[in-house]
């Protein structure tokens, strides 16, 4: 009986269609779309898959011809397990090409239940299809005709539902709600973005900031440090009111300006970090491929520039902008962030340049959290390496909070290093995005999902100024403390660091600087969505009433 089922072409066709429809059914449940959109999203792929499966006479051929659909279906099921909702986004395809193997293995080892499920579903299907091809098993002509007619009829019904029920939104529904059409569209966008990244050297050639800088009196030494945090959400910092002691060192330091109202422009590293390093506004994303970044601005202003990264080269825009630095350093294993501070200390001993900028790209709180810190910083226990599952939230949260404790130490040590010099020094820290940790309000995990949450958007950010910097630039230090509640986004980072070093350029916006008394409190804040469109913070990206309440509890009022 078992052998008959394995060699039954009708059973194979039915299993193939069922396996491909599984993510469609999951999305119909998780996306909570209007009835007509949900119906169109089921009928169109059901009809298309049914007709597709009958195109070839030999039963296993179409299974292998449609292996791309199997890959997309498996990928979608894994992401549904990870995020709880949302389709495979453009950013997720880009993450595949910009995530190093070590990070990928860390993630896969912790989502093994979903990986096992898709392997159990799709590997036997492909294996049986290969057997059918080898044995030349054919799908009966009558069955093929029935499948083609049924598939065509179901597709026609889906088109009627789409036209009559989704009038005025047909393009939106096809592009964003019908799997796998939406995913194929996103794949095309990711290929386009990859091509733009690859051509950056040509498209940005000849760009200049026309930067100017006035040296300090008596050619006093200037040292500025910018730290880009990783996945560090403000809600888990003691300085922002978190109930745990995750900032034992910074909480005791004087002179820190804590910016309480900074939101990221993107919840993905490969977009957020380049935008942090660039002068472009959220609404100017395509301009990023024609402009240089912060290292080049400081180069033009006469600074010696260092880019020290605790993350591997990723083949992304981050690398393109970093390479303009005069010194680029990638940290080796074990890749603890304190190794970046050691690299800065070494550079300060060897490099007697009058003006220096250090940009540190940290590993911060990147998953897997328990690998981001030495064991002596395991303050909250247990913090074992566990599978991604709400049942393990205590271990997951403990490990994440320990990574914040370690970040606190790294920043504090960097401040102490700067304070030990006799130079005019200042430091600015901002995380690239936040993180979901199975928070009770929405039970989501990680970041980079197409729809966002408060926890992914609200990031930790602060500045520190040496006494000498405060003596020379009292108005900037005063403005920083006065702007602690300024409604900013990560767009302000570039302009704040430029202002910190008193660099001027036609591309520097004083009204976006958190060190400026002219900061624009009325500017609209935008988010860069999965299709690289600047959109307001509203329900279209997931900011519903529950998320607004989360912002309000932190004193952040959205329009």
What do these coordinates show?
The chain is of the alpha/beta class. 47% of the residues lie in helices and 11% in strands. The protein has helices at 2-6, 9-30, 35-53, 61-65, 67-83, 90-98, 101-108, 112-134, 141-165, 170-176, 181-198, 200-203, 269-276, 294-300, 317-322, 338-350, 393-419, 454-457, 467-472, 474-482, 491-500, 545-553; strands at residues 212-213, 222-229, 256-258, 262-263, 304-309, 327-330, 355-361, 424-431, 436-437, 445-446, 461-465, 488-489, 503-504, 526-528, 534-536. The strands form five sheets. The chain has a seven-stranded mixed sheet, with helices on both faces. The chain has a two-stranded antiparallel ribbon with strand order 1-13. The chain has a two-stranded parallel ribbon with strand order 4-12. Helix 2 (9-30) runs antiparallel to helix 3 (35-53). The longest helix is centred in the C-terminal third of the chain and has 27 residues, at 393-419. It starts with a helix and ends in a 6-residue tail after the last helix. The mean pLDDT is 93.
């Amino acid at each position: 009986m078992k052998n008959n089922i394995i060699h039954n072409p009708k059973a194979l066709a039915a299993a193939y269609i069922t396996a491909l429809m599984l993510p469609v059914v999951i999305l119909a449940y998780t996306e909570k779309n209007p009835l007509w959109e949900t119906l169109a999203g089921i009928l169109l792929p059901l009809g298309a898959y049914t007709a597709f499966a009958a195109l070839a006479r030999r039963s296993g051929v179409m299974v292998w011809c449609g292996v791309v659909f199997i890959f997309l279906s498996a990928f979608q099921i894994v992401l549904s397990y990870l995020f709880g909702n949302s389709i495979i986004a453009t950013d997720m395809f880009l993450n595949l090409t910009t995530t190093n193997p070590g990070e990928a293995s860390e993630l896969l080892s912790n989502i093994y239940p979903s990986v096992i499920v898709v392997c159990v579903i799709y590997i036997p299907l492909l294996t049986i299809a290969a057997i059918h091809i080898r044995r030349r098993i054919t799908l009966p002509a009558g069955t093929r005709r029935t499948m083609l007619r049924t598939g065509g009829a179901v597709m026609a019904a889906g088109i009627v539902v789409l036209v009559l029920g989704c009038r005025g939104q047909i393009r939106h529904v096809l592009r964003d709600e019908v799997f796998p059409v939406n995913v194929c569209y996103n794949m095309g966008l990711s290929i386009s973005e990859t091509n733009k990244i690859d051509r950056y050297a040509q498209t940005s050639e000849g760009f200049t900031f026309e930067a100017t800088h006035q040296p300090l009196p008596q050619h006093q030494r200037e040292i500025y440090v910018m730290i880009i945090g990783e996945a560090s959400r403000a809600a888990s910092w003691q300085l922002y009111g978190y109930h745990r002691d995750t900032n034992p060192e910074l909480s005791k330091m004087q002179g820190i300006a804590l910016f309480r109202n900074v939101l990221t422009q993107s919840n993905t590293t490969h977009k957020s970090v380049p935008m942090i390093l660039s002068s472009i506004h959220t609404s100017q994303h395509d301009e990023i491929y024609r402009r240089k970044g912060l290292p080049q601005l400081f180069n033009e202003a006469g600074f010696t520039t260092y880019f020290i990264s605790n993350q591997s080269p990723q083949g992304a825009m981050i690398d393109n902008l970093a390479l303009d630095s005069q010194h680029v350093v990638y940290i080796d294993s074990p890749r603890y962030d304190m190794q970046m501070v050691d690299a800065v200390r070494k550079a300060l001993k060897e490099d007697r340049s009058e003006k220096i900028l250090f940009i540190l790209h940290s590993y911060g709180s990147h998953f897997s959290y328990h690998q981001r810190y030495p064991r002596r910083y395991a303050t909250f226990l247990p913090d074992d390496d566990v599978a991604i599952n709400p049942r393990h939230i205590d271990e997951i949260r403990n490990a994440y909070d320990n990574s914040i404790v370690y970040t606190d130490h790294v920043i504090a040590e960097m401040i102490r290093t700067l304070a030990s010099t006799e130079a005019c020094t200042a430091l600015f820290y901002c995380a690239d995005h936040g993180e979901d940790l199975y928070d009770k309000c929405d039970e989501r995990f990680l970041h980079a999902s197409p729809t966002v949450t408060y926890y992914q958007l609200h990031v930790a950010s602060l500045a520190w100024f040496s006494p000498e910097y405060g003596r020379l630039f009292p108005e900037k230090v005063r403005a920083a403390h006065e702007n602690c509640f300024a409604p900013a986004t990560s767009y302000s980072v570039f302009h704040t660091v430029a202002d910190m070093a008193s660099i001027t350029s036609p591309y520097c916006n004083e009204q976006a600087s958190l060190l400026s008394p002219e900061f624009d409190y009325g500017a609209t804040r935008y988010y860069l969505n999965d299709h690289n469109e600047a959109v307001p913070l509203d329900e279209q990206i997931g900011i519903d009433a529950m998320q607004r309440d989360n912002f309000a509890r932190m004193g952040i009022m959205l329009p």
